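Hi F.,

I've been meaning to write this up properly since the lab meeting, where we talked about keeping a consistent format for the predictions we share between groups. The idea is simple: the sequence comes first, exactly as it goes in, then the structure tokens exactly as they come out, then a line or two of notes. No screenshots and no reformatting. I'm using this chain as the first example so we have something concrete to point to.
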Amino acid sequence: MHITMQEKINAARSAQQVWAKQSWKDRVRSIKLLVPYLAEHGEEIAAIISRENGKTMVDALATEVVPATLGVRYYCRLGKKFMHLRPIKGGSVLLANKRSSLVYQPYGVVGIISPWNYPFAIPFSEVVMALLAGNAVILKVASNTLQVGRVLAAAFESLPLPEGLFHYIEIPGKEAGPAMISGGVDKLFFTGSTAVGRELMALAAPRLLPLVLELGGADAAIIRADADLERAAAGLVWAGLANAGQSCGGAQRLFVHQSVYDEFLAILTRRVQALRVGPSFIGDEPQWDCDMGCMTSRQQKEEVRRQVQACLDAGARIAARSPSGDMDGPGLDFPALILNDVKPDMPIMGEEVFGPVMAVVPVSGDDEAIALVNNSIYGLTGSVWTSDIKRGYAIAQRLRAGAVMINDHLMSHGLAETPWGGFGA
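Output, unedited:
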């Protein structure tokens, strides 16, 4: 018997009313069972992520399974403190007889539409937070990572939750948002493209529905003259090329002080030329000697190939590439690429290039670097590489980005204690 979205949301709302009455301690008792579940099934989950998304087993374990485990432990341990009733200090002696408090209440039914690039870790933490806060959840994962969605659903379905509190659905992506919004969810989380985020915002507007949107990125790094260049190159190879560059918070535009530009590019080139690129699995065997896996879909590979070719046609050069990976071949492997001689109007500078491609640009100093970083419609993350930490923080405060890291990049998604958000598109 087919159950409509409206019926699922209604069932979730009934279950949520029961769940919200449970004490924090009781909700934690149920949710924290995810920790031993992940310990028991972690390698199996990582293998499914690796097969379906294309990232290596090491990448799947390090950026999906481990952060999920750390996150659920963190939220169970400290969530009560975050949501505890908070007295509000009075603002005037004239009203000293008044008492005010801030009280947190669940939204009700939370809809989550998750992406294919981190198909396990991103929705996992969102579901955990929503459930712990007393909500019900309707989860829709990306259509090209359904196997990951099913193992994620199995984890939550193993918990002693009220029947109907958690629903996992499989419908086409273009139908999910409209169905959830018209079906009556009380809040919607979406991680994906900026274009779809705009569509969802328009659909949500008539209901004034609260949205959380995490969209695109073309994130930048500033490498100062006093930076540890070996560390910067190593960190940015990770930030730009892990998950085959399919990370919204990865590094795409590298602005390097002109006095160390040649030296930094040489170090970066050496590291990129040493990368082993290929499929994360051959048959049933994981390829543990593979440094960078494949792209997730043919569509995404073709889009990145188009963007790279547009840069090359406009005068950019390939300064470095990995020995393996075929940009034009039939497989999903794609070489790691470093571009230089880039111009502001090229895709690598203005668009989100969701693949293993970085541009290296010389700059005269901090002010020019900051201006170039901020000359983007995107502002998700960024990084500053310097031995002068005080100066690094001062630069970070001038960057139009939601999360700025000093001498590191693409790690804040693994820190459950940090906020996550950005500016612009």
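Notes:
The chain has a mean pLDDT of 95.
The longest strand covers residues 357-363.

If this format works for you, I'll send the rest the same way.

G.
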